[in-house]
């Protein structure tokens, strides 16, 4: 009876994608996001609170070794290295995505990746005992490599496990855990918990615990069925993985869909990054991913987070209370991302992207005004706090989570790893650039630096409005057809003609890939 009911339900979603959230699917989403994405968020914000104590440690260590204190320039350089080595590591991690996910699988890559995190956590946790600050900087690079892999592999893995009608919601789960990680680091970093002279090594070292949990639990869950069938050619394992994930035995429709994708992609083989960049059939998909990733990072989200404390201090919030305001902003971030999980399937991706970047654009413009006038108009400082909150809401519902969902959806199985590698590299490169440049930008332009972010948001909105299609509840095949028109390549449906239309397999496969991967 149950099978019958499920079969019935599947026919409601076209192409028989059985869109039920099963316990296995929910658990694998939570464990992979908690074990990997959570730590990306945690390490983004973990060094903000204990910064003064860590800088004292750098100074003291240098003094003990050399008998003289370090110059303030040298200290500033060491500290900006400590901050910026994380996104630089993220860039290296992104460059490892393609070889690792194709050779070790999606789940395998996540498990191997945990070793980076555990090693870095041990090094950071013991750095004070070992009296070495170099190890902290090295660990930030290792943690960055870890986060670079995690930020790309988790959305890919979950996107390939999900049925198409849950793909968006499950695709936002990694971003949700990134925000939970940021919040956890902010709470644990409060002065009376671990954000103090004794507690900071523990605060840095805690990052290994989620990795350890994931390393112990994730092996019991299935690998991506699309990877097993299309890349490994193992239909039996793919079928078993799907049956576990869907909670019933009738998975023929999904298997058939993957087979079709597999057949059409055999013509093309695996895309490398170079072939992806030169392939006309995927041109607009690639440009869209690059624009959305640049928009996401260059819209100033990290600047707002890095300098939230400063914005609140200049807004007249008491120094002792600034950390609580920062925590409450982290909490708003989590709540709004959670909201995005529930509305992305009803409203669609496009609306959330446009609304999200729109809010960021407006709040950056108003923030510029408020920061300029706060000395002369007393209530302007409160307006700047409101702007920061609106900005965070905008980023949390659209700009942060949706681009990663879109990479999964706009590319097929053969091109997806290369697309994540390109998207991920752009993401981390821009993150690194903002972290490095913003201090100088702020020194030179003051409050006007937010106008640059405003312009970037506006440009991104215009591009998305004109080019990016709605992808909710569509199979990979359908999305591909939409993009094929834009790429001005023909998609032939007849199998005999596949060989003549070299673009077709990419397109068709891609569409299908998405839907299967969604499934």
Short characterization:
With 519 residues, the chain is mainly α.
Report on this model:
The chain is mostly helical. The chain has 25 helices and no strands. Helix 15 packs antiparallel against helix 23 (449-467) and helix 19 packs antiparallel against helix 20. It is globular and about 70 Å long. It starts with a helix and ends with a helix. The model is unreliable at 1-18 and 493-519 (pLDDT under 50).
Topology order in helix (H) and strand (E) letters: HHHHHHHHHHHHHHHHHHHHHHHHH
Helix-and-strand structural type: mainly alpha
What is the global morphology?
globular
**What would you say the CATH architecture of the largest domain is?**
Up-down Bundle
| Domains, number | 2
CATH structural class of the largest domain: Mainly Alpha
The helix fraction, in percent, is over 70%
Alpha-carbon distance between the two ends: 22 Å
Instruction: State the fourth-level CATH superfamily of the largest domain.
Output: MFS general substrate transporter like domains
Q: What do we call the CATH topology of the largest domain?
A: Growth Hormone, Chain: A
Q: What is the number of strand segments?
A: 0
Provide the low-confidence segments as ranges: 1-18, 493-519
Radius of gyration: 23 Å
Number of helices: 25
* Biggest sheet layout: none
Strand content: under 5%
| Overall mean confidence score, pLDDT | 87
Subcellular location: Cell membrane, Sarcolemma; Cell membrane
Protein name: Solute carrier family 2, facilitated glucose transporter member 5
Family: Belongs to the major facilitator superfamily. Sugar transporter (TC 2.A.1.1) family. Glucose transporter subfamily.
Catalytic activity: D-fructose(out) = D-fructose(in)
